Amino acid sequence: MRPALPDALYKGITFTMPNVLWTVFRDNPRLAKALPVLAAKVIQARASAKYGLRVGVIAILHTFNRVQLTCTHNGYRGRAVRVLRHLDFSRLL
Description:
Layout: E1 10-16, H1 22-26, H2 29-51, E2 54-63, E3 66-77, E4 80-83
């Protein structure tokens, strides 16, 4: 059986929003569903701008105020894969 995720190093990132916005997303499910996609696009855009690579991202909405992301340390450009063992995600944000 193949593993569900590729054999790679992963980093967890959490996006949190201020309390005053919780009700906006609670009352608007369409907006809440867009949060994981937006968070993943932010990480992809920043990794692309800084390193010229794409990284794998899994984004999950946990609550109305938090999106949890799991990102790979493997970046790729076309078919070439580059392992970014020292990728500093804190510098991407």
